[in-house]
Amino acid sequence: MIILVGYVSIEGQSRKIAETIAAQIEKSGDRAVLFNVVTGAEFGVDHPQAAILCAPIHAGRYPVPFIDFVQRERDWLKSVPSAFVSVSLFIRSEYADEREEAMHFPDALMAETGWVPGMVHHAAGALRYTEYDFFKRWMAKRLAEREGAPTDTKQVHEFTDWPALQHFTDEFLTAAKA
Ligand SMILES: Cc1cc2nc3c(=O)[nH]c(=O)nc-3n(C[C@H](O)[C@H](O)[C@H](O)COP(=O)(O)O)c2cc1C
């Protein structure tokens, strides 16, 4: 099976997540077409038979080029088994209301685009303080203070649960082939 693994990533964590999913797909004997939806060229030549899309939340929403991509490809996405990986920080918050908010981030995407993925996985992202510019570091630290995440700006903090992502990918592969 050929599976499109499409992603958009501003700071690199969603790309890392997409790469991990693609590697797992290839390991299982299927073919993954890893595709950056912002910079990638046409993927149609490969005729993917399923799709997993990954996108991060920044300032309360998914990046606009990602929403544009889903809108553009909506009919195709509806015609194949598909899944969505939502990457956020709120999903690992100390506070239940923020975790709840994160659970609903995909609702707005679905309402805006009309795409309803068969499976949704919520992955906690990362805080790459050392790679941010001054303003972004300040914003990220404020966000971290608000939700109980680490605020040591001399380090990179990665929160993604890799075994849970692997389990989700396995489940998707099984469902897509059924
Ligand atoms: C400036 C900035 C704003 C963010 N805003 C939010 C937010 O509103 N809600 C949230 O849950 N996570 C937020 N995050 C956390 C990101 O979703 C997280 O860092 C993720 O790993 C980013 O994915 P990317 O590396 O693929 O861009 C923000 C991160 C940064 C740096």
TrEMBL record:
This is Protoporphyrinogen oxidase. It comes from the Bacteria. One of its GO terms (biological process) is heme biosynthetic process. Residues 4-153 form the Flavodoxin domain. One of its GO terms (molecular function) is menaquinone-dependent protoporphyrinogen oxidase activity. Pfam families: Flavodoxin_5 (PF12724).
